[in-house]
Write a structure and sequence with these properties.
By secondary structure, this protein is of the alpha/beta class. Helix content is 23%, strand content 30%. It is elongated. The chain binds uridine-diphosphate-N-acetylglucosamine and calcium ion.
């Protein structure tokens, strides 16, 4: 049977009090609506229609060609929202999954199982429900004496007895596609909110004795609908827990899952150990056998097998195998470290390629540089890559030795095997195997320290005498 999905994402999200459109608020680094799209795609939906309204352009720009779009120009309710997909979907035969863009925790497994149940039961509609200790804000499921679903009542329309019901509507449903669009035409807005409720379709089906199924979530946490930032934080916490558990079950050690923040699309290899207070963001990909953290913050960074990275911030960096980074290193975009590189403490790299076995162990800034293999960069050595207007490149050949506190004024090249003496400020290229020294020659004056001390002391006595005479 053909599977389709309608994702509702046109509401304003007033309760978020935000200039960012509600369904674009990220949960674990990914906009809610993208989580929902992943879910319906993994559940096997061939056509996906996202109903957009408020912030339509932003949502469309974000999703690109991952979905088809239907515009709901005026937000007249969830039933009216689904109706906007009529032109695109009404002629299809099959099952349509309707899901809200603000319920990011529903899993693909749940959606899949629900669709299967719906087909097996040959139902006209299947409602995904959850039993909640505190059902506040959700529509209630009203069942008949035989347990069959009769209708869904929105909280604002509930009688006192109905308000007591603990089984709620998660806002996710399967429908027979043709029956859905037929019934939507009959939905009215005669209710407390003056809206066209999608939930009324259930009552319409029941009145026609169509078969209605309910599929209850085992874990009500999946149902969290994000209407405000309190719920957003709750969704974040639940999603984080889910992501962390997935990595642990895949063979990653998290020393303290509660202080480990891994975004949805991050990949981590087996036997990697993540220490506390670590953030792994975006498209970060970590190989097996690494040690990451404590206090590491990686964004869009690739890390090879067996690398150790402590107290470091990285952004769009590529780090090879068996590299050590930190403590206190900052790897900015375009950093590429080959195998066995060592980047030590208080080192900043930007757009810098460092060859195998090379070391930048302490207190350096290396920017816009190409560094060969087996290079040693001494403590405090830096590249001066920017003249206030232009960025220039520094090249350092294989096996070169850069002494401590050297300034390399780019553009400049240091040949392979060259030796740059500590404290030099290098403005001209250094040839292969050359030694470069660029600092003023030292002069020693024998015994002069005694003389200069005596002179300084005499001056201080004179000053003190004149000070006291003034008083
Ligand atoms: C809805 C359900 C409620 C359920 C709850 C689960 C209805 C009438 N009520 O209530 O039974 O318990 O979800 O989270 O369906 N939207 C549009 N256009 C509109 C109105 C809403 O696209 O005109 C979208 C919103 O962007 C949102 C979704 O539909 O993604 C749900 O709307 P919302 O206002 O959050 O409904 P709830 O009050 O939460
Ligand atoms: Ca909602």
């Amino acid at each position: 049977m053909k599977k389709m999905a309608v994702v509702l994402a046109a509401g304003l999200g007033k309760r978020m009090k935000s200039s960012l459109y509600k369904v674009l608020h990220p949960v674990c680094g990914k906009p809610m609506v993208s989580h929902v799209l992943d879910t319906v795609k993994k559940a096997g939906c061939e056509r996906i229609v996202v109903v957009v309204g408020h912030g339509a352009e932003a949502v469309k720009a974000h999703l690109g060609n991952a979905a088809e779009f239907a515009l709901q120009a005026e937000q007249l309710g969830t039933g009216h929202a689904v109706l906007q997909a009529k032109e695109l979907l009404a002629s299809e035969d099959g099952v349509t999954l309707v899901i809200c863009g603000d319920t990011p925790l529903i899993t693909p497994e749940t959606a899949k199982a629900m669709i299967e149940r719906h087909c097996r039961d040959r139902a006209a509609a299947t409602v995904l429900t959850a039993r909640m200790e505190n059902p506040r804000g959700y529509g209630r499921i009203v069942r008949g004496p035989d347990g069959s679903v009769l209708r869904i009542v929105e909280e604002k329309d509930c009688s006192p007895q109905e308000a007591e019901i603990r089984e709620v509507n998660t806002g996710t449903y399967c429908f027979d596609n043709r029956l859905l669009f037929e019934a939507l035409e009959q939905v009215t807005n005669h209710n407390a909110q003056g809206e066209y409720y999608l939930t009324d379709v259930i009552g319409i089906f029941a009145a026609k004795s169509e078969r209605i199924s309910a599929f209850m979530l085992e874990d009500p946490a999946e149902a969290v609908g994000v209407n405000d930032r309190v719920a957003l934080a709750e969704a974040e916490r639940l999603m984080r827990k889910r992501i962390n558990e997935r990595h642990m079950l895949n063979g990653v050690t998290l020393i303290d899952p509660d202080s480990t923040y891994i975004e949805a699309d991050v990949i981590i290899g087996q036997d990697t150990v993540i220490y506390p207070n670590t953030y792994l963001r975006g498209r970060t990909e970590i190989g097996p056998g690494c040690v990451i953290g404590p206090s590491a913050d990686l964004t869009d960074t690739v890390v090879g097998r067996g690398t150790v990275l402590r107290y470091a911030v990285t952004d769009q960096a590529e780090i090879g195998e068996e590299v050590t980074v930190g403590p206190y290193a900052y790897l900015r975009p375009g950093t590429r470290l080959s195998r066995h590189v060592k980047v030590g403490h208080f080192v900043e790299l930007k757009n810098a390629q460092i060859g195998e076995n090379s070391k930048v162990p302490h207190l350096s800034y290396i920017g816009d540089a190409v560094v060969g293999v087996d290079v040693n960069i001494g403590c405090g050595a830096i590249t001066a890559n920017y003249d206030g207007y232009n960025k220039s490149v520094t090249e350092i050949g294989d096996g070169a030795f850069i002494g401590t506190n050297v300034n390399l004024i780019a553009p400049v090249k240091v040949g392979s095997g060259a030796y740059v003496v500590a404290g030099s400020t290098i403005t001209q290229d250094v040839g292969e195997n050359d030694l470069a020294i660029a600092r003023t020659r030292q002069i020693n004056k024998p015994g002069y320290a005694v003389k200069i001390r005596a002179r300084a002391k005499a001056k201080s006595v004179r000053n003190n005498v004149s000070d006291s005479s003034e008083k």
